[in-house]
Specification:
This protein has helices at residues 2-43, 49-66, 73-89. By secondary structure, the chain is mainly alpha-helical.
Length: 93
C-alpha cells in the first residue's frame, strides 16, 4: 500500500514538472512567434520558424557590420561574410 502511494505522489510531481516545463517553453518561444507574425504581416505571406530565424540573423549581421566603427579590418571582413551568408539563407522559395 505504501509503495502505491509513493508512486502516485511521484507521478503527480512529474506531471506538475512537465506542465511547468511546457509553460516555460511557451514563454520562451513567445518572442519568436511574435517575430514570425510580424514578418508574415510585413511580407504579406506566411513565414515559418526557419525563415523568421534567418531574417533575424540577417538583421543582426547587418547591425554587426554597420554599427561599430572601430572594429579591426579582419573582424569587419568576418562580419561582412556573416552578413552575406545570412542574406543568402533568406532566399524566397
Amino acid at each position: 500500500m505504501e509503495k502505491q502511494m509513493t508512486l502516485e505522489a511521484n507521478a503527480l510531481a512529474a506531471k506538475g514538472l512537465a506542465a511547468q516545463v511546457k509553460r516555460v517553453n511557451r514563454m520562451l518561444a513567445a518572442p519568436q512567434r511574435m517575430l514570425r507574425r510580424y514578418y508574415s504581416y510585413v511580407l504579406g505571406r506566411d513565414v515559418d520558424k526557419v525563415q523568421a530565424r534567418a531574417f533575424t540573423e540577417a538583421q543582426l549581421a547587418f547591425f554587426a557590420v554597420t554599427l561599430p566603427a572601430d572594429y579591426p579590418l579582419t573582424l569587419r571582413v568576418l562580419t561582412c561574410l556573416w552578413f552575406v551568408v545570412a542574406v543568402r539563407k533568406c532566399k524566397f522559395e
